[in-house]
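P.,

For your records, the input lines for the assembly:
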Amino acid sequence: MNAGSVTRLRAESTPLPTRRVEAWKYSDLAAVLPDVTLVAGAGSVIELLAGHVERLEVASGESVLNVDRFTSGALEPRAFSATVAAGGTLTRIVIQSASNGVLLGHIRVRLCAGATFRQFIYAEGAKLARMETVVTVEGEGATVELNGVYLAGRGRHADLTSIVEHMQPGGVTRQLIKGAARAGGRGVFQGKILVAAGAQHTDARQNHHALLLEDGAEVFAKPELEIHADDVQCAHGNTVGGLDANALFYMRSRGISETEARALLVEAFLIDAVPDDLPADLHGEILSRIRAWLGGAP
Amino acid sequence: MLEINNLHVAVGGADILKGLTLTVPAGEVHAIMGPNGAGKSTLSYALTGRAGYEPTRGGVTLDGVDLLAMEPEERAAKGLFLSFQYPLEIPGVPTMTFLKAALNAQRKARGEAEMSATEILKLVRAKAEDLRITPDMLKRPLNVGFSGGEKKRMEILQMLVLAPRFAILDETDSGLDIDALRIVADGVNALRSPERAMLVITHYQRLLDYIRPDRVHVLVDGAIVDTGGPELALALEEGGYDKYLAAA
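Structure tokens returned:
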């Protein structure tokens, strides 16, 4: 297929996943895509989703930083596959600005022995936005750090889905996702960690915590641990709730307005998931985006 | 200064305060003592405007202004402060950030100029030292991981920094060892002045050895049943609340 070509597909024959696919249960593509036409820019949708668009090899011992920005207002599927050789490090930062588009990001990462994949996703959601991450630990002692913050305002759908497969021993996974949703906004977290039978001494921690800021906010969470090895450390935590009314009253009793007290509490809650050691300019950008969102901008 | 007139407060549909009347003039420190369940904490929450503590009858004025009509933050800007019996942990919000937000919000509400971070840091550090609060504690999220005594000292630090006109101390002595009690009492006494007043809620006479009250009130079953000088606290320590409970 040529770059810039237009593919016409009937909805019922779309090769895209439907809600019948378990992992797409909460992100209904059919509901947000035009009925019959999928318009694909460079390369077709099918190819993009199949992960043939971008390939990246991180050589042994090297460090690569990949910053991926989603800003489009239209349909934007993007797929990316990476292999990190022994001892290499791939750091990926995704910044997804609020839009009315349909944004699909898919990354598949393979880690060789002692390799590291660190990812931070900042997602403001879109008509439908889904950032999917699949990491396979194929070598011994690889490290996976998956952090993310999603903010789902009115009319926005933000889905962070991830699968980490530990196929070899001694791997470490640290995942912390924090989210907040306002009325009419929908957040989705699906996180699976699989530990294969041979992946002894895997140490995996998965945490997802979300705040429902208003009545009518939605968060769907599906944390999963699937463990086939018998000598591992795995833990997960998942909470969805409102702001602590007692903490709010405490702050107001000190003279802080309800609006400011809420903003301080939510910001503190979210910032916990933003790694301190991101490049300073990006760290600053993410903090100011969070503050702007809490101020009611998008 | 603070006038509580025939105050009735319901919590979850049950009447807890049943016609409480009390006046605390400027410059005075009054103590409220009473058995468990008398309504001492309900009084402190009703005065500060906590949701769920609904005044059903009566009124409260601070400097002649209707307190009950105001939001909690407006009451704070007016000069009301509550030292909580169980101070809250505020995860992720550093103590200095919290103090700066509170102080400047109050100043703004009163039409005063906001203070710079440097000015506030200087002010807070000076007060913190007196209370034996380390600079490291000021960097940590407010009250998170603090011991009971540290939290109480942190309440007093907030009080000294915010310099309220009317302070309520709700069982500030509970959970304090004798040294901490002295440090806290020194902090409280430093704030006493002819323009300020305080209401000290306690179970025990002990605190009143350090913070000498002008008047002592006995709260039983939602109303003040006796009032006297500091000697009343000593009598209560001796004889307990039995005579009031029997009458009630």
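Two observations worth noting. Chain A has five helices and 16 strands. Residues 1-14, 35-53 of chain A have pLDDT under 50 and may be disordered.

Regards
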